[in-house]
Amino acid sequence: MRGARPDRGQATVEAVALCLIMAAIAAALLFGLPRLGPLVAGALQGGAAPAERHAPAAAALADRALAGRPGRGGTPTLLAAARLLALELGPAGARSYLTTRLLALHGARLGHALDVTPLVGGAAAPGDHLIASPSARPSLTIARMADEPVPDLDAAARRATMQAGADVAATALDVAGSTRLLGKLIGRIQVGQAVVGLLTPADDVGPVPGRRAGDATLCEPMTLRWTINGAVHRPLALALHLVVVRAGRVVADTMTDGERCP
Fold this sequence. Notes:
alpha+beta
């Protein structure tokens, strides 16, 4: 018996299917190799594969707050940005994200030794230097509403108010301590013929850096050492390097006493 000839139609279908499979494999390699590269490299180096980083949903608002850039609805504060970021990243993740972004903007002020000899005045001999060196990574603190000081009468206004009468003075002091907004609206009160300043406007003087709601304080622990005649001595004391950012602008860059950041 003669063997049956293969069906030409079936052979054509198989050939087309083989071509399609080869094309699919080629496409998969073409589009998959760029993503497989880091995974293979991480496996060869014994490390974990890098995870893709997605910008959080509130990243744009956080960037506006960090830059002090106004937009629709006004200028957002870091407090608002932190709360929105926390919804997605959690409180620790939001703090880490904002710390990273602040260090990217203002990190050049931190992370290196500082000569703080002028802070000790005439205690240093010529050629001696007191050097502050970083001892830990900077941490971030964002001032809350509760951190703002209670508005108060300035010294002159307090004296004038007390001289005007006990009842008037008590009323004025109660208003001053109750709410800043009310103080701004009233602004000044008239007692007899005298005009007494009720409050110092917060926008003109305001809380010290780091105590206005939304202020971002980068705190870096430092170790103080004397360098005398070229010899570096043992640690003398601890200090803190503070960089305070308000509405995208550095309002304080200073050293202070302290063993640990708040």
